[in-house]
Fold this sequence. Notes:
Strand content: 5-15%
Strand order of the largest sheet: 3-2-1-6-5-4
Radius of gyration: 45 Å
CATH architecture of the largest domain: Up-down Bundle
Number of domains: 2
Structural class: alpha+beta
Distance between the termini: 65 Å
Order of helices and strands: HHHHHHHEEEHEHHEEH
Number of helices: 11
CATH class of the largest domain: Mainly Alpha
Amino acid sequence: MLRKIQQSIHIQILMALIILGAFSIFISISIQQISNQSSRLESEQNKILRLSDSIEKIGLSSQIYNSNAARDYESYYRDLDVYYKVTVEQLNSIDNQYKNLESIHALLKDIGASPINLLSKQELRVLEELIANSSSTWRSFYHDLQDKFGDNKEEPRLEWGAVFIVDNLSSLTQSLSVMLSQFEKINNHQLTLSKIGAQVEIYLIIIFILLFALFFYSRVIKPINKTREAFTRVSNGDFGHQIQDFYSNEIGELVSSFNEMSARSNTVLSILSKLQTAETPNEIIELIQAKLYSYTGCDLVSLVSEDSKGDGFDFRNIAPVKNFKNLAYKKVLFGNQAERDHIKSIFTTNAPIRTNNISEFIKLNRNSILLRTLLNLYPLKSCIVIPLSINTKPSILLLASYHESKLQDKHLDLIQHLLPFIKHKLSSFNR
Length: 431
C-alpha cells in the first residue's frame, strides 16, 4: 500500500510540474509579446512627438514672420530665403512624417491579430480613428496652405501663407494632442502589465530551476541508475537482461549499447553451453539457427560441404529443415572451370562474404553457384558466407535472411568469434 501511495504522489508531482512548465512558457511568451508591443507603440509615439515639434516650429516661425517682417520688396526677397524656403522644407518634412504614420495602422493591425493582446478593440479603434482624422486634417491644411501661398513659386504670397498657418495650426496640434493622449493611455496600460510581468519572471526563474532539476534527474540520473543496476544484474549472472526504457539522448545510446552487449553475451553463452551437448552436425546447425534468430534475424543456417568426388557441394545440414525442404541435401555441381575457380578463391582468400542484396551480388559474380542455387529456390535477400575447413574438407557456413540489411557486420563479427568452437565441434564428428 505504501508503495502504491508513493507512486501516486510521484505521478501527481510530475503532472503538476508539467502543467506548471507549460503555464510558465505561456507567461514568458506573453510577457515578451507585451514588451514588444510596448516598444513598438513607444517608437510610434516618438514619431508623433517629433511631428508635433515640427508643427510647433513652423507655427513659431510664422508668428515671428508676421510680427517682424517688413513690407517692402527688399525685405520680401530676403524673406524668400529666410522664411519661405525654410518653411517649404519644413512642410515637406511634416508631410513625409504624416505619411510615415501609416506604419501605425500596420502596427495596430498586428496587435489586434495577435493571440496575446491585452488591449481592447475599442482602444485600438479609437487610436486608428484619431490617426485617420489627424492625417485628414493635415491634408486639408496642406492643400489650403498651398492655395494661400499661390501658384507662383517664385513670388509666393508670404503674408497670406503665414497668417493661414498661425490661424489654422491649432487644429493640427489639437488632433496630435488627442492622439498622444490616447498613446499615453495605452502605454501606461502596457507599462502596468510589464511591471506585473517582471514580477512573474522572477517566479518563473525559480520554477525553471526546479523544472531543470527534475529534467536532469529524469533524463540523466534515473537512466544511469537503471543502467548501473542492469550491469549489476549481468555481473551476477543474469545474462540477456534488457533495459526496457528508451531515451533519445546520449543516455539512450548507452542503454542501446548495453542491450546490444547483453543480447550478444546471452547468445554467445547460450550457443557455447548447448554446443557441448550436440551429437550431430545437424544439431549444431539447428542450434546456431535457433539461437541466432532472435539476435541476427537469420532465416536460414546451412553447412555446405564439398562432396566426396570434388565435383560440387552439398547442402547437407540445414535449419530449419521444415522451411527449406527443397534445399535439403541439394547437390550443386560445377558447370565449368570458372565456377570451380570462384569457389577456390573463397577458400584461398579465407575471407567471409556479406551482402545485403544477393541478386545484385550474383550479377557481379556470375560464377557464384551456391548463392545462385539458393536464390532460384527462395527469395532470400541478404546473406553471410564463411569459408571453413573441417578436417581439411572444404565447407561453408551460410546464413541468409529474407530481409535486406538484416545481417550486419556485428553479426558477422559474432559468428567469427564463435567459429573456432563450431569448427572444433564439427571436426569431432568426422575423425
